[in-house]
């Protein structure tokens, strides 16, 4: 049961991303900001920080592929971006003490890395023609605020769950 719980929680976060966008964030808003929930990525970053690099990389690959299959026309952009972001964040976390502030900063940096990867790859391929200043102000900043709030909300219960899973893995 514990082996299924972690992917199920990340999957619930993945499903809630699209539900949140449709229900609470109208397509046309008065500020013209693009709020992009990356809740599953935040949870994958927590996994990479608190469990190990392998789990973060595998969940990044799996949910990146799922994102590519469901939401994009080109397979590989999110697959690469989410996996690479989980790996980079895991490497950074090895050198830092894992507490609330560090984890929140790493998750915000991780979401930034993901957004820059996706923006860069989409610009390279020719899918996106958004200017960098518009991207930074209208997409990246609101996205970081939204996902930072989500990271604060899930920090204690999710890290507690990850620590229980880590203890279970050590026993086996």
- What is the number of E strands? 0
Which H/E pattern describes the elements? HHHHHH
| Shape verdict | globular
The fraction of residues in strands falls at: under 5%
State the domain count.
1
Q: Calculate the terminal CA-CA distance, rounded to whole Å.
A: 15 Å
- Helix amount: over 70%
Q: Explain this structure to me?
A:
This protein is an all-alpha fold and 172 residues long. The protein has one domain (39-162). Helices cover 80% and strands 0% of the residues. The chain has 6 helices and no strands. Helix 1 (2-24) packs antiparallel against helix 2 and helix 2 (39-50) packs across helix 6. The two termini are 15 Å apart.
Which labels suit this protein?
172 residues, mainly alpha, globular, cell membrane, transmembrane helix, transmembrane
Set down the secondary structure blueprint.
Layout: H1 2-24, H2 39-50, H3 53-71, H4 77-94, H5 100-125, H6 132-171
GO biological process, one term: regulation of cell shape
Membrane topology: Multi-pass membrane protein
Family: Belongs to the MreD family.
């Amino acid at each position: 049961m514990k082996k299924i719980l972690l992917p199920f929680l990340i999957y619930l976060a993945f499903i809630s991303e699209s539900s949140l966008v449709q229900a609470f964030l109208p397509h046309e808003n008065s500020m013209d900001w693009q709020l992009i929930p990356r809740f599953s990525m935040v949870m994958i970053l927590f996994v990479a920080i608190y469990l190990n690099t392998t789990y973060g990389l595998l969940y990044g690959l799996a949910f990146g592929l799922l994102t590519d299959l469901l939401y994009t026309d080109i397979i590989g952009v999110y697959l690469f971006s989410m996996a690479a972001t989980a790996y980079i964040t895991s490497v950074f976390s090895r050198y830092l003490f894992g507490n609330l502030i560090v984890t929140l900063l790493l998750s915000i940096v991780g979401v930034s890395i993901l957004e820059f990867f996706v923006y860069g790859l989409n610009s390279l391929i020719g899918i996106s023609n958004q200017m960098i200043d518009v991207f930074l102000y209208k997409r990246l900043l609101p996205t970081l605020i939204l996902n930072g709030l989500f990271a604060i909300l899930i920090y204690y219960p999710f890290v507690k769950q990850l620590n229980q899973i880590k203890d279970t893995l050590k026993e086996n």
